[in-house]
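Troubleshooting entry. The earlier prediction with alpha-L-arabinofuranose gave an output that would not parse, so I re-checked the input for stray whitespace and re-submitted. Clean input:
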Amino acid sequence: MTPDASSAADSEVDTSKGKIVIGFSQVGAESDWRKAHTLSMTETFAGDSRYELIIDDAQQKQSNQITAIRTFIQQEVDYIVLAPVTESGWDTVLGEAKEANIPVIIVDRKVDAPQDLFTCWVGSDFYLEGCKVMEWLKSYCDAIGMEASDIYIVDIQGTYGSSAQLGRTKGLVDTADKYGWTIKASESGEYTQAKAREVMAKMLRTYDPINVVYCENDNEAFGVIEAIESAGGTVGNSIKYGQTMVLSFDGVSDQAKEYGRIGKISCIGECNPLHGPRVKRIIENIEAGIEPEKYEYVDEAVFSASTTVSHITVDHRTYMINEIN
Ligand code: AHR
């Protein structure tokens, strides 16, 4: 943020021209995280008479998002907020928004487009999230005396081509390379419980042993746990004694927190969905003539009910491991 951004964010928006109309293109409702993200946007703007928020649910399809953005341009909205399903394929439509002089704020995942085609981005460092969870695994394995050669990981990936998938997968692959772990298989669970259950059931029939499942969100973890338990296995931290360890991301829903507390999910890398107030602050700053930072990363935690690992270090920064509340 620019130094005086927070004070500007508190200042009144000039409504003399009427309401500020925001067109929000949301990916869909594939996960608990996504629902919390949509709720954060609606709760932030719905109660504020200075704004009108138009939401379009793209049902996980980029083509729907492109159509929605074109509709917003025709409606002459004041701002476009885009939560992009994938990183690539945005140049043309973002160029059209730029041509129409409509600021575009990207939230959550990034776009792989020239920087002059959008105003700014706010979201998570998905690569860092992945590295943090994998460093937790390293510290945990060291603490229980588990050799690298005894670790067999499968990756239930997110939606292919999304920043969350690209970053978390790279965090896994880089850390596994660093420590000599084997990744036996990788396949997308599309961030959904049903698809992850199906993929995990197939992996259990194909690969043996598997003792760590890296799920790229909590909903996938729920499906994975169902598949393991249906096949007669148990999940938990005792990988030395036959349990399968489940790792995941988000930490948003009550079920994820409960699974974290009882150890069905061993470690959760937080992904923060509360972007509504952040988007509002950015808009209020722009209205006040303050240019937003081009890229704004959200600080996120690591959660585990196990006290075996107290902290981890990634890229010279230390992160404490938090209890799950
Ligand atoms: O882009 C954020 C990811 O998308 C969340 O981790 C996942 O749950 C969601 O669907």
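This one parsed fine. Residues 30-31, 33-34, 108-109, 164, 191, 217, 249-250, 271 surround alpha-L-arabinofuranose (CB under 6 Å).
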